[in-house]
Design brief:
heterodimer; A: MetI-like fold; 75% helix; globular; B: mainly alpha; MetI-like fold; two-stranded antiparallel sheet; 2 strands; 70% helix
Chain lengths: 300, 312
């Protein structure tokens, strides 16, 4: 009896492992196809299509990208700039906002907590946002368009940090500092910030991901190629292809009427380059990120 | 809500918190308050645009009112029916399938959790959620495009024109969505399963319970509150769709609208491609008002039978 049960446990574990390995392959396979396509010879790609094992390897796509490095690097630069500045400001604003809310002796904290929370419950919708950003703040085709709308400060992050402060920074510590005559800003800079490193890292990761992967602000507010981030650039390439497909049956790889329309392999190599930073950084941050999801997912 | 009248409470307040100077605290919050006013609160008042005939030369406030005209026009079109149906049906499928798959992954992951390879599997299945939907669209195109893997290698060149056959997209979008989100959304269930007291399983084993019985009688009942919370959270967002998934993955193809148009893509298309601010704002306001009602309802519902899981 005992032995039989032990083997059924074992069997369940083996089956689980096999299924999970299959799921892992399923999750990673498309990336391999993309990588393979980016190093496949262009003629082979058009003749035989996308394959996991290219019959003829050619790094021409990457050489082409190197020749056109100004466009790509500029888009890359915009992405890095926006992600760095955006994440920094987001973390600063979030933490500055969260600290007063965590103070039990701050009388208006419930009012401001509601002020934040209400933005989760209700929003004015995309059309109103668009018209306000373009007609009142005039951010269309400026670098502000990539930085400011949507991602600079979020209610979810503020509440996450506030909960962290409430739970892990003892009130007695603040009391002691105040007795010593420390000013609020000194307390914040000398006591709160050093203690909040884990939660700061978590929200910096969330915010950094959001900025790096953003294309929606670019879609709505940017038409000037100067301000294309890497994802916005990829999006425009895709639109050019769709446009051509709908207008006539021109073969892929053509350069028509000044449309930037690189060949299949080149498009895939740009995509590879765009996920490269995520691919490099993600293994390092994933443990922290997963922890953050667990803390934040339960209660906003 | 706790409305505070400073004058009325001043005396008590001074006595009680005489050492607290609020000015630095307010100054710390000021940048954030200004941002939320501009990014979140101003658009709430922007809802009036849906009830106006917007004329940029007159400005938002001074454009003429047109009552419910925009909504009337919107709901007379067939688009309104299609986009609401698509948004709801896709979300229902995503929610149910997503839950089943995420739960199964979580159970299997805890089962193999102690093995070294789990340290690789977990980040690998979360990775699709970390990349932008633009890249996802490129990946899907590599499979479905005219030279794509499926047409060329699997179907031997007897290609299906994926990007012009609307009937195939419900399947494609469901698969893509599962591929992207299932691993990531299992994290929360893995965390709650790993919090279960191990001695429960030991006792069940002694009583001769099989693995399936253990899952049915221990794991699922214990994480039920978490499942319900997650379900209600997603139900409250049932009128919202993943804009990128429905716009980018079908490559904004007009032939696919009947199965890929959702409220979010409609709002975008009528605002940016058709320049129809009236329709766009009507659809967008409809979405946010219904969304608000659903959040309130689902919260009230949760609070009724499990007040700890309620959002507020």
């Amino acid at each position: 009896m005992k032995k039989k049960q032990g083997s059924s446990e074992k069997r369940f574990q083996t089956i689980s492992l096999m299924i999970m390995l299959l799921i892992t392959v399923f999750c990673l396979m498309p990336f391999l196809l993309m990588l393979a396509a980016s190093v496949t010879d262009e003629n082979v790609l058009i003749r035989e299509g996308y394959k996991f094992w290219p019959s003829k390897v050619n790094f021409g796509a990457y050489k082409y990208l190197w020749a056109k490095r100004e466009t790509i690097f500029s888009a890359y630069g915009i992405s890095i700039f926006v992600t760095a500045i955006g994440t920094f400001v987001n973390v600063a604003l979030t933490s500055l906002f969260a600290y007063p809310l965590s103070r039990t002796d701050f009388k208006y904290r419930n009012f401001f907590a509601f002020f934040i929370f209400f933005t989760i419950l209700f929003n004015g919708g995309m059309t109103a946002s668009y018209i306000i950003w373009t007609q009142i703040f005039h951010i269309k085709n400026t670098v502000w368009a990539l930085l400011v709308p949507n991602y600079l400060l979020g209610a979810f992050n503020i509440l996450l940090v506030r909960n962290y402060y409430t739970a892990s920074i003892p009130a007695s510590l603040l009391e002691a500092a105040k007795v010593d005559g420390a000013k609020e800003l000194t307390i914040y800079a000398k006591i709160i910030l050093p203690l909040s490193k884990p939660v700061i890292i978590t929200i910096a990761l969330f915010s950094g991901m959001a900025y790096w992967n953003d294309w929606i602000n670019g879609l709505y507010y940017i038409t000037n190629t100067k301000f294309y981030s890497i994802n916005v650039y990829l999006n425009r390439l895709m639109n050019n292809i769709t446009f051509l497909k709908s207008s006539s049956s021109i073969t892929e790889g053509a350069n028509l009427a000044g449309l930037d329309l690189p060949s299949v392999g080149i498009r895939m190599s740009i995509a590879v380059i765009a996920i490269l930073p995520v691919l490099i950084i993600f293994p390092m941050i994933q443990a922290q990120l997963i922890k953050g999801v667990v803390i934040g997912g339960v209660k906003g | 809500m706790d409305v505070i009248n400073p004058k009325e409470n001043r005396k008590r307040h001074i006595r009680k918190t005489s050492r607290v100077n609020y000015v630095p605290l307010f100054l710390m919050m000021l940048p954030g308050i200004l941002y939320l006013l501009a990014n979140n609160y101003l658009p709430m008042f922007g809802i009036i645009i849906a009830f106006k005939k917007l004329d940029y030369s007159k400005g938002i406030l001074f454009s003429d009112w047109c009552g419910l005209d925009n909504f009337e026009y919107l709901f007379k079109t067939r688009d309104a029916f299609i986009m609401i149906r698509n948004t709801l049906v896709y979300n229902l499928i995503f929610i149910t399938l997503g839950l089943v798959v995420a739960l199964s992954i979580a159970i299997m992951m805890t089962e193999i959790g102690k093995k070294k390879i789990a340290k690789f599997i977990q980040p690998a299945i979360c990775f699709p959620n970390m990349i932008s939907i633009i890249i996802v669209a490129y990946l899907v195109y590599a499979f479905l495009g005219s030279n794509g893997f499926i047409n060329n290698t699997l179907l031997n060149g007897n290609g299906i024109k994926w990007y012009s056959e609307a009937k195939r997209w419900p399947f494609i979008l469901v698969i893509v969505n599962l591929w992207k989100t299932a691993g990531y959304s299992s994290i929360i269930y893995i965390a709650s399963i790993s919090g279960i007291d191990g001695s429960l399983y030991e006792a069940a084993k002694l009583d001769g319970a099989s693995k399936m019985q253990q899952i049915r009688c221990i794991t699922l009942p214990i994480i039920k509150p978490m499942i319900i919370l997650m379900l209600l959270l997603s139900i409250s967002k049932i009128f919202n769709s993943d804009f990128g998934l429905f716009l980018q993955v079908p490559m904004n193809s007009g032939m696919l609208f009947s199965t890929t148009q959702t409220i979010d893509t409609y709002v975008y298309r009528s605002l940016m491609e058709l320049n129809n601010i009236g329709m766009s704002s009507a659809a967008s306001v409809f979405q946010s008002v219904i969304g608000f009602v659903l959040v309130m309802l689902s919260n009230a519902f949760v609070r009724k039978f499990d007040s700890d899981s309620a959002l507020f």
